[in-house]
Amino acid sequence: MDMMCLDAKSVTERACRSCGGTGIETFLEFGKTPLADRLLTSSDIGEPEPIFPLRVAFCKDCSLVQITETVNPIILFADSYPYYSSFSPALLKHSRANALDLINRRGLGPESLVIELASNDGYLLKNYVEAGIRVLGIDPADGPAAAAERVGVPTRCAFFTRDVAETLRAQGMRADIIHANNVLAHVADTNGFVAGIARLLKDDGVAVIEAPYVEPLIEHCEFDTIYHEHLCYFSVTALDKLFRRHGLYLNEVKHLSIHGGSLRLYVESRENVGATVKDQLAHEASRGIDAIGYFRDFSSKVDALKRDLSTLLRRLKSQGATIAAYGAAAKGATLINTVGIGRDLVDFVVDRNVYKHNKYMPGQRLPIRSTEALLEVQPDYVLLLAWNFVDEILDQQAEYRARGGKFILPVPTPRII
Ligand code: JHZ
Ligand code: ZN
């Protein structure tokens, strides 16, 4: 990464975030868009919003898919970050199962140390605390970090960097497990972050990392998961190279359905590459995911989806239907701003996260209300922006549906259910 001056709002990268190669080729261009998690308050409404280029590129040297603009992380994460992991019961269940599995598999006890990078509101580490295992959370967002402390998860409010890793190591801390969920793609200094993990891990420790996987993003046209917080869109091919550069080895990989299709990576300082990784590398080579050709027609698929969704919404509206949306998700911001879904089509967005209520979606400025509004208003249709939690949300909204309400799923192709 270019060195970012602290005052700079963003920088445009000219070289690959991982390998530094200069052979990066753009394959998708959204123009300038607002920041996906920067929800507006009523006093912001009269002001213009900062917008930044959103452009996706492929590195011919290491196969990493990445955006070319790095927005200053302080703007993105440190101030009023509205994302609290604990609002999703499915995510809590998924996280608890992961912790219990590792406690078992690695025989963790009171002497062990588990560190989580981007520990948010303590949604994962609290399971280790319950089991009497020492933990440390590190997260730069003050609201979620304070919420973690309240549930008994000691948390340092900071960005994790190589320097932070050195400081913790100097204080005698080495981790048996390092968790890093949905954060590797978010850090501007990709190499510094991975080097920090290498320094903080015990010799026989394991880093257990979750990140959205680029293959389902492309195959299911999940273009809305592209926004400025997500700097990288990983393949196993690109990850394997990234870890090896820092003396770490991707030894095992699992597929997860969460967030539209993610990978769980088991990374250690001892090389012991298992069949799951070898098979995945072979799969990516056979599908061509390690070459630009795989990505070339994505842009036209995205355009077709955007057009179909817009046409569907306009048709329903012209028939007199009322439409709301569900999930003031970051991905929802990309969807409404790239498709152009404003107040003329959607009246409001509902969300369970109380920190998002009475605010407005970036760009299109759709107001955000509590989920109760769906039964109060009973709109004819609800566009599901948080489509990754479709099962959970449909169950929860059984009453709205029983009264005749319908959901619109935007991806992989717009459809009404
Ligand atoms: P959700 C998040 O992105 C945040 P987002 C982050 N950018 C990231 O990297 C990805 O995840 C992976 C609400 N909700 O989690 C909660 C309900 O209201 O899909 C959220 O506001 N009711 C760091 O923001 C939103 O929907 C529910 O029942 O795109 C979902 O957002 C459930 C389950 C969720 O991700
Ligand atoms: Zn590269």
TrEMBL record:
Alphabetical list of Gene3D superfamilies matching this protein: 6.10.250.3100, Methyltransferase, zinc-binding domain, NAD(P)-binding Rossmann-like Domain, Vaccinia Virus protein VP39
Protein origin, superkingdom: Bacteria
Segments forming domain Methyltransferase putative zinc binding: 16-77
Keywords (A to Z) from UniProt: Methyltransferase, Transferase
One GO biological process term: methylation
Example of a GO MF term: methyltransferase activity
Pfam families linked to this entry: Methyltransf_13, Methyltransf_14, Methyltransf_23
Matches recorded under InterPro entries: Methyltransf_Zn-bd_dom_put, Methyltransf_Zn-bd_dom_put_sf, MeTrfase_14, SAM-dependent_MTases_sf
Domain annotation C-methyltransferase: ranges: 258-412
Protein name: Methyltransferase domain-containing protein
Organism from which the protein derives: Mesorhizobium muleiense
Lineage of source species: Bacteria, Pseudomonadati, Pseudomonadota, Alphaproteobacteria, Hyphomicrobiales
